[in-house]
Amino acid sequence: MKNWDQPDNDQELWQEFILEKEEYAFEILYKKYYESLSRFAWRYVKSKAVAEEIVQETYTDVWISGDSWEINGSVRSYFYRIVRNKCLNHIKHLQIKEKYDPIWLEDYYQQETGYIDERREKQIRAAIQNAIEELPERSRMTYMLHRQDGLTYDEIAGVMDVSVKTVESQMSRTLKILRKKLSYLLI
Question: Is the pTM of this model over 0.90?
């Protein structure tokens, strides 16, 4: 029996999921990436419900028309790229609504948003989280994709449409900033 949790099996799962429409392959890929993709989407849209909806929509789109798509690179980075694009489209849509419908926007911001992480109540976790949140947008995204979602520099470069060298230099600068901001915790 194959161990479907291994990343090198993703290509095989993709073939069975997309080309042969095997439900078990869909279920494995769904369980494998749903949570991390939802967290990733949340970083863009700042709403748990919207993030989950975007991820579910991604899987539906892939199920329906994925056989006509050609993936370059890993399946995981492909899912991240799709979710990223859907999030950016969602944000553009919100900006249009904001411009033309201020009443809708007021209702949108009154909804409960976000993941509640109970571990944040601890002082050290809160300090680390604050330091990460204070990072510039691209630094924060690069850091989170690598450290929280476990993407490689190659995969991050694919998701963010930059070179691997750019990702390496971004991570180096980001870690230097975090070390400096959090040095007081080492005492």
Answer: no
Q: Domain limits at 52? A: 8-116
Same domain, 98 and 181: no
CB-based contact 114:46 (threshold 8 Å): yes
**Structural domain total, the chain:** 2
Contacts of 181 (CB under 8 A, 6+ apart): 131, 134
Question: Any residues with CB less than 8 A from the CB of 165 and at least 6 apart, and which?
Answer: none
Same structural domain for residues 74 and 139?
no
How many of the other CB atoms lie within 10 Å of CB of 11?
A: 11
**41-92, pLDDT tens digit by residue?**
999 998 898 999 999 999 888 878 766 767 777 888 888 999 999 999 999 9
